[in-house]
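Today's session is about reading a structure prediction critically. Students often jump straight to the picture, but the first step is always the sequence itself: look for stretches that repeat, for charged clusters, for runs of hydrophobic residues. Only then move on to the predicted structure, which in these notes is written as discrete structure tokens rather than atom positions. Here is the chain we will use throughout the hour.
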Amino acid sequence: MGNKDLDPETIRTYEVGLSYEFNKHVTSSINYFYNDIRNLIVQHIRSTTQGTSQYENFGDAHVQGIETETRVNIIKDNYVFMNYTFQNPEDEDGNDLPFVAQHYGNFGVNVHYPKYINTNLSTFVSGTRSREQDDPRDDLPVYALLNLSVIAKEFFKNMEVQGTVFNLLDKDYSDPGPLSIPDDFPRPGRTFFVGLSYQF
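Below is the predicted structure for this chain, in token form.
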């Protein structure tokens, strides 16, 4: 159901970071961020109309956290990378926001074959995601997704072909849903993407 009184959600972000190159192979960075969110939009089930939901302004929220990243260069365009984020999302009363993972990160490897082929294999890991206060179900568990991307370029003038497989291992996972959807929102399984670009 539409809501003519819905206000736009806005966010203001503050960030400060430090990056350090230990040597020609290893670079690390750390960032602190603070997000000030106003007129947070959430979906609520209307009590007056069974089975009908409506987007409403929930109030304000604040998210602060730390991001770290390290990259280890082996040889040109061949490297190992890892990053980790901790965040603490709270509403205006200091309560934890539901549906948001406090911990998540990526790690992987990039391999560049001479001249033509670049391969990137990465794993995304998400921590648990909590429910709303009146939801008796368990928090959604930790999950990990393996993604593979292959780029072919310079084999034909100005042309690049990219192929990506998301969720390579066909992991079964869901996003949190309201009580009216007991099995939550299922996320896509193994997904293929192919792109072709040409520069004139």
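Discussion point for the tutorial: The mean pLDDT is 90.
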